[in-house]
Amino acid sequence: MWDTTTRVPFSASLLGERSDADGRRRLLALIAECPGITVDELAALGLPGLFSDLRSFHRDGLIATEPSPPRFFERATRVYPAPHEVAPA
Question: How far apart are CA 66 and CA 46, in angstroms?
Answer without folding.
Answer: 21
